[in-house]
Amino acid sequence: MAQVRLEGVAKRFGPVSALADITETMADGELTVILGPSGCGKSTLLRVIAGLDEATAGRIFIGDRDVTDLPPAKRDIAMVFQSYALYPHMTVFDNMAFGLKLAGRSRAAVRAKVEEAAKLLRIDGLLDRKPRALSGGQRQRVAMGRALVREPQVFLFDEPLSNLDAALRVEMRFEIAALQKQLGATMVYVTHDQVEAMTLADRILVMRDGRVEQSGAPLDIYRRPVNRFVAGFLGTPGMNFIDGRIVDRGENGLGIALGDGGWIDLPLAAETRLAGEVIQVGGRPEDLMVEKERDDGKHGGVRLSAEVLLVERLGAETHLHLSVAGGRRIIARVGGETSLRQGETVRVSASVDVLHLFDVSGDRIAPVG
Amino acid sequence: MYLAPTLLVLAVVGGWPLARTIWFSLSDAYLGRAAEASFIGLDNYLLLAGDGEWWGAVWNTVVFAACSVTLETVLGIGIALVLNARFTGRGLVRAAVLVPWAIPLVVSAKMWAWMFNDLYGVINAGLAGLGLIDGPVAWLADPDLAMAAVVMTDVWKTTPFMAILVLAGLQMIPDDIYEAARVDGVHPVKVFFRITLPLVWPVLLVAVIFRTLDALRVFDLIYVMTSNSRDTASMSVFARQQMVNFGDLGYGSAASVLIVLIVGLVTVLWLMAGRVRLGAEGGR
Amino acid sequence: MRPGLWLAVGLILLFSLFPFYWAIVSSLETGTALFDADLLPSGATLRNYGEIFAAQPFGRNILNSLLVAGGTVALALTLAVGAAYALGRVAFRGRGLLLMVILAVSMFPQVAVLSGLFELIAALGLYNSLWALIFSYMIFTLPFSVWVLTVFMRDLPREIEEAAIIDGAGSFTVVTRIFLPLMAPALASTGLLAFLVAWNEFLFALTFTLSDKVRTVPVAIALISGQSQYEIPWGHMMAASVTVTLPLILLVLLFQRRIVSGLTAGAVKG
Ligand SMILES: Nc1ncnc2c1ncn2[C@@H]1O[C@H](COP(=O)(O)OP(=O)(O)OP(=O)(O)O)[C@@H](O)[C@H]1O
Ligand SMILES: [Mg+2]
């Protein structure tokens, strides 16, 4: 196994810049998930690593080798495609054996390898079938088997589970995770499914428009997104944003005016230099507390009133769609048993240290949270 | 590179001979003495312009193409509509429709020539039996009738092609469109002209273009059925006769070049007509 | 509606099948029986069939046609697969234009290349040989094959090719081990059509061959003649016609679907 290192990798398709100056390391034995919205360059990044697309600039290292100019077959990688790309005219056995045969391995060696991988993936009963005669989940396994027998340094997955139904997706997700631990393999895994990303990844790269916006452990990214984009991209329902302005109240410290009477106390006495700045306040739905409006003066630092627009009861939890000052809509996630109803006026509060502040350009304002 | 052999072969069997033909057409080349030919400019073309036989051949070809393509299109659409209906044995009927298409053109020509035979032909016998004619009709000797016989044979032979293409086009139309029309109570004839025809139009256009080009360069059928007879000779028959039978390579080549130009022109006209028509459809 | 439909079906069948039926009837008759227009053969005999093989090198003609058509198919498909791979799979500038040019070649009227081709064939010493025919038939079979196979190849999923590349396959292996097997149906369609075209071709066969020994079936049939110009041996002619047509009809019936898909792939997707 080996790490993958990218140095200043860029990729252009004519005038379109699909990847711009990417420098990242995907550590040995880790599962790195590349996450981002459609068209952000995830597949392109994976294909550049695989050698299916040539990088326009930069170098790519696998282990200690510079593989930038090597063809895919020489890079010691294996790839699992979204459509599985099984050879339709070959049996499962031949699908898995094709690469080994081309590499000139002996018959016995090929057979041993394929059977071992098939056993691991529990498809050893299917070796004589053609892909047409397999279910989606079985095809998925064959595709993984084909990757496995190559014993590559790095596994590349491009949205491997997106063609499966929800239940199978969970099962296969579990199996990929187990396999990765068992083999200690280096894997690079592209998806736009956050749940997959959060549950599978040792590390996540969040991409946008051909750039890596943030990389790190899943919970770090979730808890400390470096900018508005990452903050909004991770989590369902997504983070809520409200415009505000930092106000210096002298003796009483800093606060954020949310317009229309909303207010947040800030514990940042030292940061008076921020005063006057226009910002965005972000709060995750599960971090918001919603209560019936009571005029008892207690508000835990956050004072914001809202009207309940819609109550979505999901059983275990309830999503409240709220209209706050200035008509902005936010979503709060509360318990399944809430007694709040549509049309009620409520008070929204939150503990200040779980809020996220972003400046006008969308970057996180460091000292908060 | 994988393309090279194909391009080379096509250049050799297509490009080079065409270039030679163009050169011959500008020269006084004769068969067997092509090497001694000298450049004579457009003389061959000028000569052609005044050659009644050539214009006769052009006229024959145009009449042939127009008649047979029109008949084939109408019949082809008709057959396709029938085949598109659901009935038991449809597969067999479709296969039967393909039979004429599979028969070599020369064989078709001979078969029909035999059927059209003035003394012993089954067609005369049938018509006489029905009391439509009182004496034998010399189908292939009479100029007008010979053309009719040739057109008839061509229609028989190539209607399957049209029918199969139109059928493919018809089968691409989703059923729910018809169902919607039925629910709206649109009259079947109107459905055909307002829904079916516009939807198969692209396929039909391609088929008609193919067939027109084919008909304009017709050779085998006419040559086999009526030999080099002036009354039915097509442009291709004329050109080959000049080149091979009379050995006048230059003159025949000039005719050939004109055929290429005419075919090209017709293609362009068809494509333009098709586009205009399609544009009108889209504009609605 | 129903009776109308059946009437239409009946007419279609009559129109499509009667001429061939009549040829069969005539081929089974000799002498004067041939000359009356009864719908059933009177005094059926296979004598005509015997005679065409005895009196003429008709067996030889059939063999020639088989060789020419087979050779044409083999050569056209071999060349076309490579070209289709390049045109359907490898992105390069001017690809669309090139495809149009290739297609345009098949639109050439045959007479337009007749003289140049004749000269070329004579120069290569191929005149009056089967090679001349195989070679010249490329002009209509090759563009068509390239076209259909390119359309087909373009529809094959790119990821399968990429999976093979990662498995270590070079472009030759990709073509032979992955694409060829996947294209089997398209190859069958194209091959059948090319075979029929080559089997039926007349003008080149008439012009580029001279002796009975190298003639193909269509030319042989066209040139069947009797003792005198006025005595055309219709019985022989019909027997020969039926002989060469029956296998074709069987072929067409057997491979109806393939042929239809080949025909429509050329036109509908173009
Ligand atoms: N072969 C190509 N030619 C031109 N542009 C391309 C090509 N491949 C990708 N692109 C462009 O590069 C950008 C990134 O594409 P990519 O396929 O990497 O996105 P992605 O993140 O994988 O999206 P998705 O989640 O939809 O798969 C897109 O804007 C796309 O249009
Ligand atoms: Mg992608």
Describe the structure.
The complex is a heterotrimer of chains A (369), B (284) and C (270). Chain A is of the alpha+beta class. Chain A is 23% helix and 33% strand. Chain B is mainly alpha-helical. Chain B is built from 12 helices and no strands. The longest helix of chain B has 35 residues, at 249-283. Chain B is globular and about 75 Å long. Chain C is 76% helix and 0% strand. Chain C is globular and about 75 Å long. The two termini of chain C are 36 Å apart. Chains in contact: A-C, B-C. At the B-C interface, helix 1, helix 3, helix 4, helix 5 and helix 6 of B face helix 1, helix 3, helix 4, helix 5 and helix 6 of C. The site of magnesium ion has 2 residues of chain A, from helix 1.
CATH topology of the largest domain in chain C: MetI-like fold
- The percentage helix of chain B is over 70%
Which ligands accompany this protein?
adenosine-5'-triphosphate, magnesium ion
The major beta sheet of chain B can be summarized as: none
Structural class of chain B: mainly alpha
Largest interface: B-C, 90 and 81 residues
How would you sum up the global shape of chain B?
Answer: globular
SSE string of chain B: HHHHHHHHHHHH
Gyration radius over CA of chain C: 23 Å
CATH topology of the domain at 63-225 in chain B: MetI-like fold
Average pLDDT of chain B: 77
Helix tally of chain C equals 13
- Annotated CATH homologous superfamily of the domain at 63-225 in chain B: MetI-like
* Quaternary assembly: heterotrimer
Quickly give the CATH architecture of the largest domain in chain C: Orthogonal Bundle
Cα shape of chain C: globular
In brief:
Chain A is an alpha+beta fold. Chain A has helices spanning 42-50, 92-102, 107-120, 136-149, 166-183, 194-200, 218-223, 228-233, and strands spanning 4-13, 16-26, 31-35, 57-62, 65-66, 77-80, 154-158, 186-191, 203-208, 211-216, 240-248, 254-257, 263-265, 278-283, 289-292, 302-313, 317-324, 329-335, 345-349, 356-358. Chain A has two domains: 4-233, 3-Layer(aba) Sandwich (Rossmann fold); 240-358, Nucleic acid-binding proteins (OB fold (Dihydrolipoamide Acetyltransferase, E2P), Beta Barrel).
Write the topology of this structure.
The complex is a heterotrimer of chains A (369), B (284) and C (270).
Chain A: E1 4-13, E2 16-26, E3 31-35, H1 42-50, E4 57-62, E5 65-66, E6 77-80, H2 92-102, H3 107-120, H4 136-149, E7 154-158, H5 166-183, E8 186-191, H6 194-200, E9 203-208, E10 211-216, H7 218-223, H8 228-233, E11 240-248, E12 254-257, E13 263-265, E14 278-283, E15 289-292, E16 302-313, E17 317-324, E18 329-335, E19 345-349, E20 356-358
Chain B: H1 4-25, H2 43-49, H3 52-84, H4 90-102, H5 105-115, H6 122-129, H7 143-171, H8 175-183, H9 188-216, H10 220-226, H11 235-245, H12 249-283
Helix pairs in contact in B: 1-12, 2-12, 3-7, 3-9, 3-11, 4-7, 5-7, 5-10, 7-9, 7-10, 9-12, 11-12
Chain C: H1 2-27, H2 47-55, H3 58-89, H4 95-107, H5 110-123, H6 130-155, H7 158-166, H8 171-182, H9 184-200, H10 203-208, H11 217-223, H12 234-254, H13 256-268
Helix pairs in contact in C: 1-12, 2-12, 3-6, 3-9, 4-6, 6-9, 7-8, 9-13
The structure holds adenosine-5'-triphosphate (ATP) and magnesium ion.
Residues 13, 16, 18, 36, 38-44, 192 of chain A line the site of adenosine-5'-triphosphate.
